[in-house]
Hints:
Elements: E1 12-16, E2 20-24, H1 28-58, H2 70-89, H3 98-110, E3 120-121, H4 126-149, H5 156-179, E4 185-186
Antiparallel strand pairs: 1-2, 3-4
Amino acid sequence: MKIYTRTGDTGQTQVYTHEVLKKDKDDSLLQCYGTLDELNSYVGLITALLVADNNSHLQADTTTLPHPEVFSWLEQIQRDIFAMGFAMSNASQLRDGGVEWLECCIDSMTERLAPQTSFILPGGTVNAANIHVTRTIARRAERELVTLHKHTELAPNVLKYINRLSDFMFVLARATNAQSQIADISV
């Protein structure tokens, strides 16, 4: 199978729903697809950064992981983001219980953190800063999904999941800094 099809060379592409639709590449549906793809790529990047950082610390018998399950969590999040694309164009493939699962992950990380008493600036470690970038991409995806939802039916859990995902990334960034003993930058 060739990677290129040449069907998009004129600024349009096909979207597979219950029927095949031809859409302009700047259509709000395709904007959402693109942002979700970017978000998924950034989740892959932060996973790779955490793996590399953790592997370098293992030689010193320390870890930079904010939580032992973080790698399995991030892989599941990537699968969920991928499933959101289907939830936008065809049938909801986003798993039931995904929002509640994210909330459990958030709660698990939060209970190990100092209470948040002020606004926090993005930053700290390189990993935490990249996690904050991922959080802002999730917020952009949420805004685009809200716009899309005005014209296209979305499964109810899509908007809830993307909202909770940005919360997850915020807490993961805090937990990453805390594990590296870097204080939050309060405003």
